[in-house]
């Protein structure tokens, strides 16, 4: 990493973007061996929020009979109001461009307040059913609150909660493990099409936000969710027995791959590029298998067994080369 930074600084100097005096000052600063604890401190703050909210959940679970439902809800509501009171008091208000709190702790106070709000609404619905049997509303309300907090306080962590809630509202569980194990795309075509439509909706919102300059730095978060949702739903349906269905999803995956290939360069996002390649590779192999599944290869199966290791090794080499070339292009 240090060699990369030195080379980057040298490139800036050779291109005339910095003076010789600035070049020497940068070298002298780096030779001091100083480093920032900003990322580590933020990680501890994030873990603190998770432990705090998890602790409240465990406290509720273990003392539900002794504390009482009204008391638990009242305590949750008080903590939520305190969190948001301080956040609104010290925030700069809603702004279309990227903003930050003067103190980073308040950013995690927003996250804590939002998670507790989700717990409060979920517990309220479970115990008293204010939304009746419309459990979707119990998901939609905290989702709306999360979107409001994400845009008002400019908080990416809360935005991920909001998008996850939106996906849950349409019947999805947006984590890679749950998408693969809990959601039966094969049995429910409606769920598959809903997943693709949600992904497209996230993409369209990203394009619209970029056009009106509304929190454009949120774009990578929306696109990351869209990439995973569309790609996994498409790959899951490539094994469908209905020819029309798997061909449709093959086209969807191809279009998704092309779009996210371009967006990964626009955002200079390594994460988008890597996952785009992985999904395209998996989908491409399944597609080839479906194309040739009715062809009899019994006479040359020994050749396939011989070439298979070379195919996978070659795939790994090409993957590494693509990543290196991408990194080189976005850093130049």
TrEMBL record:
It comes from the Bacteria. Residues 12-158 form the DUF2157 domain. This is DUF2157 domain-containing protein. The chain crosses the membrane at residues 43-61, 67-88, 108-128, 134-153, 158-176, 191-208, 220-238, 244-261, 273-292, 304-323. Keywords: Membrane, Transmembrane, Transmembrane helix.
